[in-house]
Amino acid sequence: MLRPSKHQIVSKKYFIIDFDSTFTQVEALDELARISLQDRPDREAIYRKIEEYTNKAMEGKLSFRESLAARVQLLEADKSHLKLLVKHLKKLVSTSFARNKNFFRQHANEVLIVSGGFKEFITPVVLPFHIKPENIYANTFVFDKNGKIVGYDDTNPLSYEGGKVKLLQTLKLPGEIHGIGDGYSDFQLKESGMIKKFYAFTENIERKSVTEKADHVTPSLDEILYINKIPAAISYPKNRIVCLVAGNVPEETVKFLKKDGFAVKHTATLDKSSITEAGILLLGKGQTLTTELLSDARKLKVIGYSAEVNIPLALSTERGIAVFAQGKKPESLGKRIARFINNGDTVKSENFPHIQLPSVSGHRFIHIHKNMVGVLAKVNQVFAAHELNVTAQYLMTNEQIGYVITDISGQYDKQMLKEMKSIPGTIQLRFLY
C-alpha cells in the first residue's frame, strides 16, 4: 500500500456490509427453512414460497417488511434449528471474505454488518472475523416459552422497508461510507444519498435490478479492497485476471480456477486478439503456442497444459512466465496455477526453480531475474535504502533464472518498486499484499 504524503488528509472509510448472499454464500432464512421443514411432506412447495418472498424483496418488487413477515410465518423453527443453521453457515462464508480475515481484523472499528437478517445466526458467524458485537445491526427473533420462533421484534427499524437507511441516519458515522451488498435494500443506502459508493456484490448472486444501479459491480471482496487501495490477501483481484482456455482442457481444471475467482474465457483457436489480455493460458491437446503469439501476450504470467502441446519453453522462461503440466488428477493443474498466482509457489513447474512457500503475511515481493551474480544483494540494498524490515526471504535458481521471494513489514512506495524493476537482469517483478 502506498504511504500518504505528510500533507494528505486521509478520510476514515466505513464499510456497511450485508450478510445474506454477501458475507455468506446463501440466504440464511432459506437455509433455516430447509433445516426446520425437512420432515414436512410439502417442504419443497414451502421452500419455493420462501425463496419467492426473498427474491421479490431483494429485487424491490415486495416491501421488505411484507417479505420478512411472510417468511418467518412459514419457518416453523426453534432454537435447536438455529444451532444447526449457524454450524451450516460457518462453512458457507463467501470465499473472498474468508481469505481476507486480516482486513476485518485491521479495520474492526470501520466495518459494520447491517442486515435484515437476524442476530441469532449472524453474530456467531461473523464474530470469528473480528467483527465487534456493537457493530452488528440486525433483527431479533421472538420466541415462546418452548424456544419456538413465533415472530420478531417489530420495533427494530431493520424490520421495516428502508430500514437500513433509517438505521444509518441514527448512527451518524464520521467519515466516508461505502455500502456492500447484493439486494435492493443495500442500494437504497446509495439512493438516500447517505453513502459515497455502493458496490453490488456478485460473487454469489447477480441481480440485474441491483447491478444496473451500482457504482461498481464487484465479483469479490478483493476487488473492493483493490479499488480502495487496502491491503488484501492477494495483490490483484482474481476476477480481473483472464484465464484463457484454448482447446479441450479438462473440465475439473477450468472449474477449479473459476471457483477460485479467475475470469474464464474460451477460444477455439489462439490468435493475437484473444491472447493479448490473458494472464493465465490453459492449452488443450494439440494446441500450438507460437513465439509470435507468446510475444503478444503482454499480461501472461503462467501457462498450463494437459498433454501433447507445443510451447516455446525457453522464451517463456526468458519472459518470466511459469509453465505447469497437468498431474495425475485433472484438478491438480488448476491447483498449481492458483498457488503460483496467489502465493508464488513454483513446485512442479516445468521451467522455474521449485519452491514451496508459507502463506503471505505482510507484503510479498517476487523478483524473477536472469541467473547472474549479485542480484540478491541489490534486491536487499533497495529494501535497506527504504528502511523496510525483511521478515522472510527465499532464493532458488536454475540454469536460466533466479527466483527471489521477500516478505516485508511496513509500507512501501512507488519509488521502491521502480528501483526494484531497474535492477540489472530483472525479468519481472510481482508483488503480493
UniProtKB/TrEMBL annotation:
Pathway(s) this gene product operates in, as recorded in its UniProt entry: Amino-acid biosynthesis; L-serine biosynthesis; L-serine from 3-phospho-D-glycerate: step 3/3
UniProt GO BP: L-serine biosynthetic process
One term of GO molecular function: magnesium ion binding
Known cofactor(s): Mg(2+)
InterPro entries: ACT-like_dom_sf, ACT_dom, AHAS_small-like_ACT, HAD-like_SerB, HAD-like_sf, HAD_sf
Enzyme class: hydrolase
Keyword Plastid: no
Domain ACT: 364-433
Catalysed transformations (reactions): O-phospho-L-serine + H2O = L-serine + phosphate; O-phospho-D-serine + H2O = D-serine + phosphate
Highest taxon, organism lineage: Bacteria
EC number: 3.1.3.3
GO cellular component: cytoplasm
Keyword annotations of the record: Amino-acid biosynthesis, Hydrolase, Magnesium, Metal-binding, Serine biosynthesis
Name this polypeptide is given: phosphoserine phosphatase
Lineage summary: Bacteria, Pseudomonadati, Bacteroidota, Chitinophagia, Chitinophagales
